[in-house]
Amino acid sequence: MNGTELVLDAWLSALKSxxxxxxxxxxxxxxxxxxxxxxxxxxxxxxxxxLTLRAGKRTRPALLVASHAAVAEAGEWEQLLDxxxxxxxxxxxxxxxxxxxxxxxxxxxxxxxxxxxxxxxSSDQVGASLAILAGDLANAFATELMSRAAIPDSSLRPALxxxxxxxxxxxxxxxxxxxxxxxxxxxxxxxxxSYSVRGPVLLGAALxxxxxxxxxxxxxxxxxxxxxxxxxxxxxxxxxxxxxxxxPAGSDLRAGKRTVLIEEAERRLSVAARxxxxxxxxxxxxxxxxxxxxxxxxxxxxxxAVVEQQVLAFYAExxxxxxxxxxxxxxxxxxxELAQRFxxxxx
Length: 347
Hints:
Layout: H1 3-37, H2 42-53, H3 59-71, H4 81-102, E1 106-107, E2 110-111, H5 113-121, H6 124-148, H7 153-178, H8 184-207, H9 212-239, H10 242-245, H11 251-255, H12 260-268, H13 275-278, H14 288-300, H15 303-322, H16 329-344
Antiparallel strand pairs: 1-2
Helix pairs in contact: 1-2, 1-4, 2-6, 3-4, 3-8, 3-16, 4-6, 5-6, 7-8, 8-9, 9-15, 9-16, 12-15, 15-16
């Protein structure tokens, strides 16, 4: 690990600590309110707290802070903590619902909420219902945090518009994912790119009062950076180490997710050659032996290598978008470092 990576790690660690403390304080307030108004609802709040604070990397707050630093005077993170926490709770809401839709049992190294609740009440239906309600509650918490943030009047409307646009895009992207829409690039742009990279970047820009040229440069950065993030996520969903990712290896294959790996396999391989992949795709009960055969096919056919190259190409495109842009140097450098991290991450 070189010096730049060490500096980035230290910055990310400090930011994560600040955001996690802020989240913990917020959840404490929500637990007290639930205890006063609806004691059984404390269970929902506590489940959301555990999931939100369990192994999250806080990359979305990092993008928000870096984007803000690229357009505004450097300042304390305090004014950005509510929007940062709102992004994390928005992600929690989306993860809870996504896990239920995919029928995943594990998230971030622990049980998914629908599975947790189902075991607690011995009912899959009640467990799913409680998980959906918990996700809705997380979304309400995110909205509350944005509404109470110390946002200057001139930035309020652009920031709230960016936050709302992010939520709408990810819902549309999730719909395309659920119905198995064949345009994987569009799914990525709407579903993951929107709230993992583009949304946080544009939210930070809005909070910092970015002028049109700055916003355009940041959008040109965010699109390929988001694609690098998602393509790497696709790779980790099949080849990642469960100890690091917090999800079983091959879960995306079992769930039948259309990823860049699937798209590339369809492009390169005949229907007959794709047989090992077809046997596990969309098959929740596929065993480990079948999954190993599918992974082997993706490697030996060159599909994995092609996607790895795509990730690096997206990263390079993101960095080029920052060059020459009218952005403040510190924020611009941090954004470039984050794009590199997205392209090379292992969790």
